Every structure is written in C-alpha cells, then in structure tokens.
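Researcher: Here's the sequence for the chain we discussed earlier.
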Amino acid sequence: MLESVESLTGGPWIYAMVALSVLLDVFLPVLPSGVLVITAATAAAAGSATGKVPHGVPDILTLTSCAAVASVLGDLVAYRLAWRGGERLDRAIARSRRLTGAQERLGAALARGGGALVVLARFAPAGRSVVSLGAGAAHRRVRDFLPWSALAGVTWAVYSVALGYYGGQWLGTTWLATGVSVLALFAAGAGAAFVVRRPAKA
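Model: Thanks. This is the structure I predict for it:
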C-alpha cells in the first residue's frame, strides 16, 4: 500500500496540490479536495507505521497547515469577490432560494455574535461557497466573518487529516482504510448539510 500511495502523494508537490485544490473548491465544489487530503494523511500514517518515515511521505503538521490556510484564503477570495459583485450578483442571489436563505441565516447568526453556521457549512457540500459568497454579498464585516472562517478551516483540516491518519493507523494502510475515512467525511458533510438547511426557530 505504501508504494502505491507514495506514487500519488510523494514529493513536496503534494502540498501545492492540496493547497490549490482546497483553495479552488470554494468556486468548484466538485473538486475532491477532502479525498486528496485524506489520501495524503493515509500516506503519512503508512510512513509512521513502519517506524521510519520514507522520503516523499507527507508531514502531518505541514499537510494540516496547508489545508487550513488554503481554506481560509479561498473563503476570503470568495468573500471579497462577492463584496464587489454589485447588482448582478445581488440579482443572482435573489433568484436562488438556497443562497437567500443561507444569507439570512448567516446574517442572523453573525448579528447574535455566533458563527457556528460558518463552521458547519465548511463540511456541507457547497456550503462553504454559499456562506462565503453570502457573507460578501451581504457586506458582513470581515471581523465578524474571518474568525469563524479560520475556525472552520482549521476544524475541517484537522478532521480530514485525522480521518486519513488514524484510519490508516487503525485499519491498516490499505485502500479500504482510505475509503472508510472518505465515507466518514461524507457522513459529516451530510449531517452538516441537514443542520444548515434546517429552518431556524422563531
């Protein structure tokens, strides 16, 4: 397993690939950034399991940092673009019940001083895009949005890396371990999507 994973994640370029994938999936949610992070973390588990980390196996802390920083930067880029989007973006959001509802819930959450919605949305499919664009289009203050975006990015990165790493430790460094870890990530996303889409109580 280690040799096959190394062929996919070997070399320092894996950090650039992870960062680019995470950065861009705020605009292209179909990018498998979570799968890439988990696969790289499984490679790290494969290296630690041997007791001697081979050349080319990702460093777990560097991998987590790359994913977290890229997540926050992607959020900020989407936020700023939506902030400057003007009337065309406002009309596009107004035509989408999903975007409009998310924008309203986000505004209420930030107004109350809570941004758990931002953290939850990071796990939901396309939730990160909806929240980042909605916050920018609604001209929410960056000091209200950025701390929660940072918390969301760190939480998602730590969770994704931990799934791949500990999945490899507990289930062995096999493709089955990677598959189980990816399913756990999707399950968290489905749960987050349910909570985010649930109508707020009066």
